[in-house]
Amino acid sequence: MAPANAACRREDYPEFPYPDTDYQEDNRGQFHFSARGGWINDVNAPLYYRGVYHLYFQHNPHGLAWGTMHWGHATSEDLVHWTQQPVALQPGVHPGDLFSGGGVVDTANVSRLRHGEHDPILVYSGTNGVTVFYSLDGGYTFEAYDEGRPVVVPAGTSRDPMVFRNEPAGAWGMVVWSDEGGNGVNFYTSRNLLDWTFASRYQADWLFECPNLVAMPLDGDPSAIRWMLHAASGEYVVGDFDGATFTSDWASPKRINQGPAAFDGSYYAGLTFANMPDNRVVSMAWQPGNRGSVWTGNLTFPVELRLTSFDDGPRVVATPVREIEKLRVSRRTWPEGVLDEREAARLLADVRADTYEIDAEFDVSGFPESRFGFRLRTGGPGSGYEVRYDTTSQTLDGVPLSPVDGRVRIRLLVDRGQLEVFGNDGELYRSLNVDFGGMAGDGIELVVDGRVRLHSLAVHELGSIWRGEQCP
Fold first, then answer.
1. Residue ranges per domain, the chain?
2. Largest CB tally within 10 Å, which of 31, 191, 240, 315?
3. DSSP per residue over 153-173, as a string?
4. What are the strands of the beta sheet with 395-396, ordered from one edge?
5. Strand order in the sheet with 158-166
C-alpha cells in the first residue's frame, strides 16, 4: 500500500504537490470526500482490492475549474476514511483524453498481464475511442496497453466506457456512451478484457453520459437477477441482459437520486464499486455545487443500492453504507409519544452538533393534516434549513413519498455544505448542496404543524473522515 502522505511528497509527484490543508475550509465536508486541492468531477473506476477501496475521479489539480483532466486517486480501508494518493493517470505521461471511465480487477488473469504478486487492475478511459490502462502494483500506478491504441471506436462522439462482469455468460461486457443517431450506449463483449466485439446498441433520449449497467438481485434473491442501466443523471431503467443485448419494457426512467442532476447541481455521474468482497452494490457520485478556497466539488457519501419490489414494479432504493457506524462518536435517543408544536420545539432544545446523522420514524395514522420534520443549523444569523414531511401531499422535502404501514422514516446526513435526505429506508434518496456556513448555528429543531406521533428518534454526532495528515 502506498504511504499515507504520498500525495504530498515532492519526490513522488514533483509537478504540483498539493497544498497544506486541515480540511477545514468553508463548506469542506467532514464526511464527504473532496480533493486536497483543485477541481474534481465524475467518479471513475471505484473498486476493491485486497483490503483497500480505490476511488479514482476526474481531477484538475492545477486549478479550481474544469480543465486538463487527470485521474485523481484516493484509498480507504473502511469505505469512509479516505487518504488522497498521487494522481493515477496524468496527461503527457498517459496517452489520450483521460476522461471518465470504469475499472475491474482481473482476478483470473484473463488479460495475461500479470507479472508479479498482484492481479492486473484494468481501467478504461478516452474519448472517441476506448483506451486501456493497467496496474501491476495494486492500483497505484498505470501503464497504457498497446501504447494507448483504442480497443474499440464507436461511431459518433463517444466516451465513458464502463466494464462489467456477466457471470451467466462467463464473459466481460463493456457499455460506452455515444451520440450515434442520438443518445444511447453500445455494448461490447470480451473474454480477455482486451479484445472486444460489438454486440448491440440501446438508444434512449435520457441516456446521456457515464452509463452503468449493474446486475442486481431482486429483493436480495440471488436467483432473481435483473439488470439496472443508468446514466449520469441517475435516471435508470430495469430490464434483462442476455450477454449481448439489454431490453426493458419501461416506458420512461426512474431516478436513483432526487437531487438536482446537472453540472452545477448536487448529483451526477455515479458509479458502483467493482470486485466488492460481499457482493453489495455500493455507489458514489459527484456533487458539483460545493467549493472552497483551494478545492471545488465533492462526492456523495457512499450508499448501498438494492433492487426492491413495489406495487408498480422493481425500484432501486439507497441507504448509507453500514460503515457510517465507524464515524459515530455520540448518540442520543428520545422516547415515543404524540407531539404538538410546543412539545416538539422543546424536545431538541439542548442539542448542539456540527456534523451529524438524524434517524427518525413517525406514525402518521390518525394525523392526516400534519407537517413535521427538522430545522437544521438554527441559532445563527440564518433561519436554518428545513426538511419536512407533508401528510396532505405525502411529500418529503417536496418529493412524493407515501407512508409505509402508516409510518414515515426520515434519515438525514448533515455535513458542512452537504445534506443527504433518505426517506422510508431509501425509497427516497436526495443529495443537496446547502450553504450551512451562512447559517452559522449548531442547533437542531424538531418542527411540527398540527400533531404527529413520534415512534423513534436518534441523533448521532459524526466525526471526520480525514486523518489529519499534513503535507511536509
1. 6-316, 324-462
2. 31
3. --SSSEEEEEEEEETTTTEEE
4. 399-400, 395-396, 385-390, 371-378, 443-449
5. 158-166, 171-178, 184-190, 197-203
| Nearest to 297, CA basis, from 26, 38, 14 | 38
What is the SS3 assignment for 354?
coil
What cell numbers appear for 304 in the block?
448501498
Check if the beta carbon of residue 163 is closer than 8 Å to that of residue 104: yes
The CATH code for residues 324-462 is 2.60.120.560
C-beta atoms surrounding 293 within 10 Å: 12
**413 contacts 423 by C-beta, under 8 angstroms:** no
Tens digit of pLDDT per residue, the chain (472 long)? 444 455 566 565 555 667 788 898 878 999 999 999 999 999 999 999 999 999 999 999 999 999 999 999 999 999 999 999 999 999 999 999 999 999 999 999 999 999 999 999 999 999 999 999 999 999 999 999 999 999 999 999 999 999 999 988 889 999 999 999 999 999 999 999 999 999 999 999 999 999 999 999 999 999 999 999 999 999 999 999 999 999 999 999 999 999 999 888 999 999 999 999 999 999 999 999 888 889 999 999 999 999 999 999 999 999 999 999 999 999 999 999 999 999 999 999 999 999 999 999 999 998 988 999 999 998 876 678 999 999 999 999 999 999 999 999 999 999 999 999 999 999 999 999 998 766 668 999 999 999 999 999 999 999 999 975 555 4
Region at 88 (left for phi over 0; alpha for psi -120 to 50; beta for the rest)? alpha
Cell 466539488, residue? 297
Start-to-end CA span in the chain (Å): 20
Residues 6+ apart with CB under 8 A from 399: 258, 423, 428, 430
- pTM, two decimals, is 0.95
Active site residues: 42
Q: Are 364 and 408 in contact (CB under 8 A)?
A: yes
Regarding the domain delimited by 6-316, which CATH topology (the fold level of the hierarchy) does it fall under? Tachylectin-2; Chain A (2.115.10)
For the chain, state the CA radius of gyration. 23
